Each structure stands twice: as C-alpha cells, then as structure tokens.
Fold these 2 entries.
Entry 1:
Amino acid sequence: MKPARPRALNAGVAQREAWSWAMLDFANSGYTTVVLTAVFSAYFVGVVAGGAPWAALAWTATLSVSYLLVMFTLPALGARADARARKRWLLFAASLGCIVGTLVLTRVGPGDLWLAIVAVVFSNYCYSVSDSAIASFLPELAAPQALGRVSGWGWAMGYFGGLLSLGVALAIVLAGESHGEGAPVTVPRVMFATAALFAIAVIPAMLWLRERAKPSTIPVVSPLRTLARAWREIGQGFRQFRLLLLCGASYQAGISVVITLAAVYAEQVMGFTMTQTITLIFAVNIAGAFGALVFGSVQDRIGHRPALALTLVGWLFTAVTAFLAVDVRVFWVAACLAGLCMGTSQSAGRAMVGALAPSDRLASFYALWTFAMQLAAAAGPLAYGLVTWLTSGNQRLAMLLTGLFFIAALGVLSRIRFSQGEQERKAAEAHAV
C-alpha cells in the first residue's frame, strides 16, 4: 500500500485560509508585472522621460530609492510587528498604500517625471513591505516538510494574478489602439485596472487569514540599531542564515534586472511594440507559474540547496542567451527560461528562510531577508543602468554582465550547510522556551 502523502498545512490551518494567503501573491503580482515589468517601466522611459539618454538610469534610480527606504525601515517594522503580534496589520496597511500609489500613476502623462518618480517610490515601497509580511505567514501555515510546496502555491497564484492583470492590460491597449489612442491614454487606464484587481484579490485574506503570533519580548529600537543588532545576532547564532542572505542578495540583483528592465530591453534592443511586449511577459508569467507550482514539490524532495543551485545555473544560461539573441525567436526562448527560473528561485528562497527562521521571530527574519532583497534590487538595476549609460546605450553588454550576479550566488551557495542552519534554528527556539 502506498504511504499517504504528508499533510502540507499545519494543524488548525484550513485550506480556505491557505488559499486566501496565496491570493495575496495573486494580488501584488499584478503590480510588479504591470507596473515594474511590462507596461509602466517602458512608458516611463519612452513617454514620461521622452526616451532621453538618461531615461533608463532615471527608472532604475527611482526604484533604487524605494528599495533603499525599505532597507532602512523594514527591519524595525518587522521587529515591531513581532513585538506586538501585528503582522496582519502591517500586511494590510502596506497593501492599501500600494493600491493608492498605483492609482496616483493614473495621473502621470508625458513630462510628468517627478509625479511618476514619487508615485513609483511610494507604491513600490508599500509593495515591498507587504511582500515581506506575506512571506512571514508561510511558516505558520505550512508544515515543515512542505514549505517549498506551499510557497510554490503562493508563487503560482502570483503568476496567475500577473497573467490576469496582463490580459486586462492587453485588452485595454488593443481597444485603445483600435480607436487611435496611444500610450498616454491607455496606460492610465491600465494602472486603474491593476489597482482595482489588487484591491479585490486582497479581500479573502482580510476575511480568513489569522494572526497566530504571540507578542515578543524582544525590545523595539531605532531602525539603524535594529539592523545592527539583527546582523550581529545572525552572525553569532545564525551563520547559515547569514550566508543565505548573501546568496539571496547576489542572485536577486540579477533577477531584479530582468523584472525591472525586461520591457525596456524588449522594446529598445529587440524592437518590440507595447502589444508584443505584453504578450512576451504573458508567456514569461505562464512559465513562471509552472516553475513555482511544480518546482516547489521538487525542492522538498531533492533539498533546498540543490534545487536553488539548479535554478541559478538556469539563470546564468538565460543571461548569456539574451546577450547573444539577435533573432526574435531566440529572445523568446531566453524570456521563457527566465520566467521558469524566476518562479523556482524566488519560491525556493522564501521556503529556505522559513526553514531557518525561529518561530518567535518570523517577521524579523523575513524583514532581514527583504532587506537583502531590496539591497540587491537597488544594486542590480542601478548597475545595469550605469553600464548602459557609460557605454552609450549598450544594453546587450549590461545584460551579459548581469550573469556575474548568478555566478557570485553559486559561490556563496556552495558554502551553505542547510542541516547546520536547521540546528541553529532549533537551538534558538529551545532557548526561547
């Protein structure tokens, strides 16, 4: 008789609650897919900034500012959420802020550079905070042996949310083009639809996602002191987690280039129209959903480190293929491979944090993870923008150099001993009892 498959959810967690949590990924992925990747990024560079030589650098610098703000405030927000058992409050406050910021983007037209910058900084900041809060619920919902699988559910739902938002965006753009309307008319409509879908998808979690955490005794101090204390703490008792942070920061720098500059690269290097770009990102999201949904179970079977290593090799191959792509069909292959790798690597990282984070400091550890991700998200695209600017627009070279981030991540990953990291977590939990 075939043994029963272990339960994926912790005791007391209903399928409905897990689904409502996954719908949060569905909600915010519409923002990242439409605003950061497929539509507004290209609109910012080509229309708002008028295609100026500094436009790509301005876009990456705008995102870097928002990520820097996250880096220096989120650890304290996470510590406060742990201390007061208010992860749920943090999650929904940040989600509302992202929705409002996206609505402000509906007012951005040609030349409205500063309005666009402020709205993107604010909305992306709120998105990043909400994303960290979403991740901090994972260990409360998923059984220890199924962290990869449940994380994959969320990422897969996220890609489906991105697909729906892209489908709506494509319909709006095509309808506008049939009436002779250009991007200054259609893009604000797309931003409104994206905000509306975000708001609707958050509702299930508002109804069913529970706050299980208990207030912590760890004192809450200033953001900089929180960062310094957290870094010292993981250096002493959580060395494997600190290596994971370094690894994650390395590969996320490369992933952030793809997320924030895919549409810009497709339009300015490969000559895609907005409709073609949206279609391309649509395919990327399908590949990403498949990767997140299928690879989560594979990760639980073969182990976290081998799974992530396999994905990083795929990312390196993607960067080289995009650099070499002259034929559009080759670029399509690179883009779909990027989607597959994106779904697997981001799901894998979130699950690995859940396996190494003590149960009484989930928000704090996920805040540190987000800190590392935001540092990478600031550094990766900014490096790409600087290379493009210094080489008079050579985006192919900038894409090739992105592969160095994945090589660095593989080097750090080779030093991580996951079983030792789990022992460090158990020791911390035993000490806290």
Entry 2:
Amino acid sequence: MRTRRQFMLQGLGALAVAAVGARRAGAAVVKRPLGCVDLGALDGCADLVRRAEWDDQPAKTWLLREAGGYNRLTVHHLGQWARVETDRNAVECAVRNVCAGHRARGYGDIGYHFVIDHAGRVWEGRSLAYEGAHVSGANEGNLGVMLMGNFDEQRPVPAQIKVLDALTARLREIFMIKRYRVYGHRDLNATACPGRNLYEHVVELRT
C-alpha cells in the first residue's frame, strides 16, 4: 500500500493530468491537491535556477509546515532598496542573503517559493512541499513569488513582468487557482509590498 508521503511526491505533471481527466469526466475537481516537489511542469515557462545550484544548506524542516496544496498566490517585492543586478553571481549572493535573513528570524528556510531577478530568471526557493512564510497569518495554501527590487522606488523591468505573467499563469493552471485569488502582499497584510509600481500589474493579473 502506498504511503501518504508517496502520494505527495507524485509531482506536478501527474497532478495536472489527473485534474484534466476529472474535468473531462465531469467529476468534481480537488482544488487543493497535496503538496508536490517536481518542478518539471515549469519547463519552458522560465529560466529556472534550481535550489541545489545556489544553496547547499538544508532547510530546517522541523520548523516548516507540510503543504496541503495551494489555492492562492501572493506577489511580493524585496523592498529595502532598488536592485538592478542581472549578473548571476551577484543575484545568487542577494538570494542567499534573503534566505539567511529568513533563517535568522526562525523561518527554517527562505519564505518564498520563487524569486524573480532583473534578468528574468526564476530562482527556486522553499520547496513546494512546504507552506511558505511570506504573509503573516495567511500562508496556508498560499504560493509566494517575490521580485527583486523596491517597486515603490523603481519599476519592474520588462523581463520580470514577462516571467511573472508566465509563471503565474502556469501555477494557476497547475493548482487550479482562480484569477481573483492572485494577491499583492498589501491585500492581505498592512504593508506597502509589493510597491505601487508592481501592484498595478498584480491588479491586472487578477482581472
């Protein structure tokens, strides 16, 4: 008999196929599937930098909550100061610093599931097998996508917007997330995140 954990590790591809089959059969579709770890379903969507390529420190999994699935997505900016790095080594250093800061705050790992840099690369963050730590009091079922930059002070570059659109569309398709369930951080907490110059695009994503 297969264990619950084995079912969780079936992957995004199998999940998407099952959902399509259920729709065609007229059956009820499970909208909050169990967490999964296979990012192969994102191939062609973005230039994905896998976690093992930038971080060799294992997550403190005993501090993380296992994901029960995803039914919403929240967009963030890094804030702090304007960022314009496109060099891979410089971005890797910045992402490492974000991760180290989150670990120092007791998160156990970087809080976001994905990070988008100014070159349009997507950096794999926290495993999709675990809930994020990016919206206080509202992390359950919530995918976290963060764009590098302070978008109160600067505008996201076209490469970031293009990849944000593609990544959001793919994640919504995979997890059957309704368009109106795409948020900016400010929609859920008292914060300026993701900055006024990015939030205007988040509004477009959900309308």
